[in-house]
Amino acid sequence: MIPPDHPRYRSLVARERIAGCARAGVVSLEGIAAHGRGEAFDYLIGERTTESAHVAEKTAAAFLVSAKNPVISVNGNTAALAAGLVRDLQQASGAGVEVNLFHRTEERMNLITRLLEENGVTVMAGKAERLLPLSHDRALCLRHGIFESDVVLVPLEDGDRCQALRSMGKVVITIDLNPLSRTARAASLTIVDELTRALPQITRFCRELPVEQSAKFIRECDNNRFLKSALQEMEANLAHALD
Ligand code: ATP
Question: Phi, psi at residue 84, to the nearest 5°?
Fold first, then answer.
């Protein structure tokens, strides 16, 4: 039991959740490593939502509510940390939710689908086909889901798949604490913020952002600017770390 007054309470709860979900088979062993990388970058950004991530979250909401066919792609870590938050975002944005895994087995697909459904998410069903320009099972997705989407939110994605989705002409939004990752650089829009801080903000803006402002946020979206300002934030935190 982690004491709620522990200074690193939130982070320790998340870590415990990732470990428990790994034991249950929802999170892959590789997913534990990816989580640790995220934790390290969260230290650098100061474990808070920066002003520029806030704008990126508004921009993500603008893309989602303006999309014809938005889809949220969910992997093991996202389901483990944020199943209820994905439900809220689905309700606010009207997006479809598809389970899509890098380390894909039938068993993990079923476990993650069940976890999401228990938390009130409506999960897209059907037979996955090799439709993405990638080798092996990473090409698998649903024709009426990710394949036909115009805007796809892929939290904690891998670089190759992000590039493949971009090459298909989609708007790809990612949430990634590492502004240097291939995913962050390949995406149309990267939110450099922690997943469980970012999702509720995007949900709130899906509900609150006036339609006329959406067009402005979409027009002004500049992924490089978001990445540069995250790096500047990290540099500044490092420069003053021991003051
Ligand atoms: P790429 O292939 O894009 O270069 P990678 O090898 O880091 O990146 P993964 O390990 O699949 O790819 O990606 C996981 C990414 O998600 C990491 O960059 C990590 O910083 C980030 N990440 C992990 N946990 C979280 C979290 N809770 N919130 C936000 N980002 C996270």
Answer: -65, -35
What's the pLDDT tens digit per position in 58-109?
999 999 999 999 999 999 999 999 999 999 999 999 999 999 998 899 999 9
User: Rounded to whole angstroms, how far apart are CA atoms 19 and 192?
Assistant: 23
Range of the domain at 134: 51-242
Residue 116 domain-assigned?
A: yes
DSSP 3-state assignment of 99? strand
More confident residue, 157 or 47: 47
Q: How many structural domains does the chain have?
A: 1
Q: What is the CATH number of the domain that holds 111?
A: 3.40.50.12640
* Atom number in ligand 1 closest to CA 102: 11
Which residues of 100-209 form beta strands (DSSP E)?
129-130, 140-141, 151-153, 171-175, 189-191
* Ligand 1 pocket by Cβ (under 6 Å): 34-35, 37-38, 41, 81, 156, 158-159, 175-178, 181-183, 194-195
Give the pLDDT of residue 201. Answer: 98
Residue 157 in any domain: the answer is yes
pTM for this predicted structure: 0.97
